[in-house]
Design a protein that fits this description.
Length: 142
């Protein structure tokens, strides 16, 4: 079973973010649905190059990660909580977020509109995407 290895879940509310996410550090986060039994369904993953708090506040304000019209019609769970972790480097954030993106279903399951992108001016690549492309190429070439 996939694991985020993050703190939380916490309610996705401005006062909670301001109180709990206080270190001015980059980090990764997941937005999701916290059920009454405290189970957390991951619906969106991302990272912040600057501060996790700033990124979460932006997500809250802009409703990033919220499902579309069809999700509302079908009753898909609404984002109401988050988990987060700090990192010592932006590169670590990027790689952790890529791992979480793949572990929790990628574009087929998550509300992410695209695979996490590396920061501008970096040449980092997702190791999971590289592995999948290599495996696909071996199957086609073999």
């Amino acid at each position: 079973m996939a694991k985020l290895d993050m703190d939380g879940p916490l309610k996705l509310e401005e006062k909670v973010i301001l109180k709990e996410v206080i270190q001015p550090m980059p980090g990764s986060f997941a937005l999701g649905h916290l059920a009454a039994n405290r189970s957390f369904e991951v619906l969106y993953v991302s990272y912040s190059e600057t501060t996790v708090q700033e990124a979460l506040l932006t997500c809250l304000k802009k409703r990033i990660g919220q499902g579309g019209f069809m999700d509302k019609l079908t009753g898909k769970n609404k984002i109401n909580a988050f988990k987060y972790s700090y990192a010592n480097s932006v590169e670590a954030c990027f790689h952790k977020t890529c791992k979480n993106f793949h572990d929790f279903g990628g574009l087929k399951v998550l509300n992410n509109k695209e695979h996490p992108r590396p920061p501008k001016k970096s040449d980092w690549i997702c190791s999971r995407c590289t592995e999948e492309l290599t495996a696909s190429f071996k199957v086609k070439a073999g």
